C-alpha cells in the first residue's frame, strides 16, 4: 500500500496504529500473537517477554486502542488476540505475519 492509499483513512486512527507499531515491545507482542492461531493470556505473554504486569498492560492498552488487538476478559484473566479486521483494513496482515 502506498502512502496515497492511506489518505482515505482517518488520521487519528493512523496515528494510533503507527504509534503502536513504533515500539519494539509491541512489535514483539504482535510477533508472538501472529505465530499463534488462538488467543493468549496476558500473563503468558508477559512471562515470554519477561515483563511486569503493569508494563505489559500498558503495551496491551496501546495495541487495543489502535485496534490491532482484541482483549477478552474471563474472570480475573485477560486473553489477547490479533484483530484481523483492522489488519486487513489497513493492509497490515503481511507486515504482522512477517515480523
UniProtKB/TrEMBL annotation:
Coiled coil: none annotated. Keywords: DNA-binding, Transcription, Transcription regulation. InterPro entries: ArsR-like_HTH (IPR011991), HTH_ArsR_DNA-bd_dom (IPR001845), HTH_MetalResp_TranReg (IPR051081), WH-like_DNA-bd_sf (IPR036388), WH_DNA-bd_sf (IPR036390). Gene3D superfamilies: Winged helix-like DNA-binding domain superfamily/Winged helix DNA-binding domain. One of its GO terms (molecular function) is DNA-binding transcription factor activity. Residues 6-99 form the HTH arsR-type domain. NCBIfam families: HTH_metalloreg (NF033788). This is ArsR family transcriptional regulator.
Amino acid at each position: 500500500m502506498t502512502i496515497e492509499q492511506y489518505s482515505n483513512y482517518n488520521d487519528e486512527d493512523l496515528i494510533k496504529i503507527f504509534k503502536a507499531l513504533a515500539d519494539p515491545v509491541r512489535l514483539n507482542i504482535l510477533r508472538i500473537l501472529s505465530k499463534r492461531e488462538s488467543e493468549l493470556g496476558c500473563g503468558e505473554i508477559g512471562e515470554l517477554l519477561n515483563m511486569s504486569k503493569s508494563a505489559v498492560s500498558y503495551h496491551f492498552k496501546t495495541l487495543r486502542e489502535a485496534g490491532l488487538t482484541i482483549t477478552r476478559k474471563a474472570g480475573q484473566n485477560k486473553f489477547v488476540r490479533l484483530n484481523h479486521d483492522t489488519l486487513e483494513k489497513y493492509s497490515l496482515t503481511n507486515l504482522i505475519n512477517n515480523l
